[in-house]
Amino acid sequence: SKYLETRTFARKLYYYDETDSTNTRAKIVGETDCVHGALFVANEQTAGKGRRGHSWNSDKGTTISMSYLLKPDIDISCVSRITLVSAVALARAFSKVDGVKPQIKWPNDVLSDGKKMVGILTEMSSEGTDISYVVVGIGINVYNRSFPEDIADKATSILLENGKGCDRSWFIAQVSNEFEKLYDEFIKNKDLGFLVDEYNSYLVNRDKQVYVIEGDKKTEYTALGLSKDGGLLVRDADGEVHDIISGEVSVRGI
Ligand code: BTN
After folding, report:
1. Cα(67)–Cα(84) distance, rounded to whole angstroms?
2. What ipTM is given for this predicted complex?
3. Distance between CA atoms of 76 and 146, rounded to whole angstroms?
4. How far is the CA of 79 from the centre of ligand 1 (A)?
5. Which residues line ligand 1 (CB under 6 A)?
6. What is the mean pLDDT of the chain?
7. Measuring from atom 7 of ligand 1, which residue has the nearest CA?
8. Which of 28, 29, 56 to mutate to test the pocket of ligand 1 (most atoms within 8 A of CB)?
9. Domains detected in the chain
10. Which pick of 32, 181, 224, 237 has the fewest CB atoms within 10 Å?
């Protein structure tokens, strides 16, 4: 794409008119021929994967389904930070689209008007503590006019937000440009200190009450913002600050 300004991200492109899942495609290539920054894009996925074993809907022509294949030289315990980096890249790209005001719901949903517009699924392959590769899969609702009943009031698309959608290849280039810049900065820094303020500027949970659900236990906190290792800083009723780690708990707004 003529809009691409990257060194490695999306320079190698695998395009599918229809495939099972771009994450699956990226993982298969990752096993043999792992080119850092390779991008897998599909016009339609027949077996799109969401988080926690959910499926992800990506009908022909309405969404962007794409996965970056990455070879990060970082500690294996820090891989989830890449997902947070990608969420900010998406928020930056959305800021360039007319009529869309992006928000981030910690850790990594990108919303508009409080409704989900993007889902991100990061998968990793490792040998012991060595990372073989990481796949960051991103699903973006672009031209959807409606959603299945169970998510109808929780999901939105660029079209529903601004009445016109946006050019998909332009948008993919914008995400790639921003993601590469932020990713390089992250690899240099190893932590997210450089990103905290910008991430928090998009954070929909900020200063809001959130529930943290751990098993049967439900605790109410005030969300303060991102911590430099990717957790959510929250304040409890006694004023004490805690760093909530993603994956341990489920955070809901009230
Ligand atoms: C979520 O549950 O919020 C994550 C959804 C991730 C969907 C994207 S679409 C491109 C890539 N390929 C997949 O099978 N899943 C991700």
Report:
1. 15
2. 0.99
3. 39
4. 17
5. 21-23, 45, 48-51, 54, 56, 58, 65-67, 119-121, 137-139
6. 94
7. 139
8. 56
9. 13-201 (3.30.930.10), 205-253 (2.30.30.100)
10. 32
pTM of the model: 0.95
Q: What confidence score (pLDDT) does residue 250 get?
A: 65
Beta-sheet pairing, 63-70 with 102-105: unpaired
Q: How far is the CA of 216 from the centre of ligand 1 (A)?
A: 28
Q: Tell me the CA–centroid distance for residue 124 and ligand 1, in Å.
A: 14
161 Cα: distance to centroid of ligand 1 (angstroms): 21
Per-residue pLDDT, 100: 96
Torsion angles phi and psi, residue 19, rounded to 5: -150, 175
Q: Which two tokens stand for residue 145?
A: 């006019």
Q: What is the pLDDT of residues 12-21, one digit of tens each?
A: 999 999 999 9
Pocket-testing residue among 138, 156, 168, ligand 1, by greatest number of atoms within 8 A of Cβ? 138
Chain mean position to CA 1: 22
Are the C-beta atoms of 71 and 84 separated by less than 8 Å?
Answer: no
Closest CA to 220 of 207, 236, 200: 236
Which residue's CA is the closest to the ligand 1 atom numbered 10?
65
Residue range 87-143, pLDDT digits in tens: 999 999 999 999 999 999 999 899 999 999 999 999 999 999 999 999 999 999 999
Residue 254 has pLDDT above 60, yes or no: no
Beta-strand runs (E) in the chain: 13-16, 39-42, 63-70, 102-105, 109-112, 115-127, 130-141, 209-214, 217-226, 232-235, 241-244, 250-253
Residue nearest to atom 9 of ligand 1 (CA): 139
Q: Specify the higher pLDDT residue, 215 or 54.
A: 54
